[in-house]
Amino acid sequence: MTEVPHQPAEYALNLCEVGHQAFFSTTPPTEASFTQAMTSICTTWQNRLGIECFPRIYLGSYFCDRLFASMSESFMDVFSTYVSNAGTACTLVVPLFSQNMLQAGKKRLAALLERTREDGTFLFDEVVANDPATAQFAQQYAQASGNPVRLAYGRMMAKTTRDPRHSVLEETAQPYAVDAEQAAYLREQGYTLLECDPFAPVVDTSALENALPLALHLPHCLMTTGHVCEAAGTNLDPTQKFRPCGPCQQECLRNIQVYESFNLQTEAPVYFTRLGRTIFFENPGCALQGQQPQRIIWTPADYLFPAAQPAQPVGQAALLGGQSWE
User: Fold this and answer.
1) Cβ(255)–Cβ(319) below 8 Å
2) Mean pLDDT per 10-residue run, the chain (326 residues)?
3) Which burial class, exposed, middle or buried, applies to 317 when counting CB atoms under 10 A from its CB (0-12, 13-18, 19+)?
């Protein structure tokens, strides 16, 4: 069993990025194949975590507007049928839209918030906004469709130092602080939840006790992300590589990089995983000091990071997926 040092009110299954890799990198799944895959994922992690079910699923993308816009109608039909039959609540995760994807992203967001289940209720009852403009777009489109969605303050808006190579992160660390006035403002804006990453062995959340309920991501921590996707430049001419917000063929779904480094003080090995333009590290034993999480957002790491901690040293960069980017 996977030990988690918390007893949250609920667990949520995070299919952001994972869902793209598992279900979007080939032809869109059928209802039967999607149900089979979801049964395998849920059963595996429910047994490992010692829980009865995942009452909520996260879908979308935290980091990439192109992945968000790529969720096809055929896939959403299959997904909607599955969650309708399972009675599972759904959260839509919306990334920051780059300028060249703004119109396409807004159009996809509006269409997704209008989607309904087989019983006529809205598919998504919650939206994770990763910047203030995204939150405004979501509220605007939800009101237009009559969907009374709740807002969650996404992990991308939590600005904290996070790098396990440095000794400062071996100690207790505090996330962003939210005072009473700020909490009241967030509630007025429609936020009902704050997301937090496991960026240190012990995260002191006492400064959030008078704010909103907390949702903790596990088992991986977002370390950094950006606008340049190394994977997207794989097949491009050298003069066209590494340009911000450039076009892609979703190469990130077929290539995952694992980097090996070490803590600068203890020299303990540290492994990072790169998916597209985002880098993660694992910290499943993160403890919270202060406010405890109402929800744990669990990423099924065996799908997203199949070998995030290789048994043998792999050099500076080992590639999973068979092709080198160099």
Assistant:
1) yes
2) 68 83 63 87 90 94 89 89 95 93 93 94 96 92 93 88 71 77 88 91 82 90 86 79 76 79 84 86 86 91 55 31 26
3) middle
Are the CB atoms for 158 and 118 separated by under 8 Å?
A: no
| Local structure of 11: helix, strand or coil | strand
**How many Å separate Cα 277 from the centre of its chain?**
13
Contact 171, 211 (CB under 8 A): no
CA distance 183 to 123: 28
Q: Is 116 exposed, middle or buried (0-12, 13-18, 19+ CB in 10 A)?
A: middle
- Could you give the CA distance from residue 49 to residue 46 in angstroms, rounded to a whole number? 5
CA 228, CA 235: separation in Å to the nearest integer?
A: 15
Token digits of residue 264? 């600068």
Cis peptide preceding 198, ω within 30 of 0:
no
What does the angle CA 84 – CA 86 – CA 89 come to, to the nearest 5 degrees?
70
Residues 6+ apart with CB under 8 A from 4: 49, 218, 284, 296
Q: Which has the closest alpha carbon to 18: 129, 87, 93, 89?
A: 93
Burial 160-199 (b: 16+ CB within 10 A, else e): bebbbeeeebeeebebeebeeeebeebeeebbebbbbbbb
What burial class does residue 67 get, using C-beta atoms within 10 Å of its C-beta: 0-12 exposed, 13-18 middle, 19+ buried? buried
Is the pTM of the predicted complex or chain greater than 0.85? Answer: yes
Q: Name the one residue in this structure whose structure tokens are 């299959």.
A: 78
Q: Which long-range contacts (CB under 8 A, 24 or more apart) does 81-86 make?
A: 81/31, 81/118, 82/31, 82/34, 82/35, 82/38, 83/57, 83/117, 83/123, 84/117, 84/118, 84/119
Strands 214-218 and 295-298: parallel
HSE at residue 282, side-chain half, CA atoms within 13 A, is 19
Q: How far, in Å, are 59, 77, 142 from residue 122 at the CA level?
A: 14, 13, 10
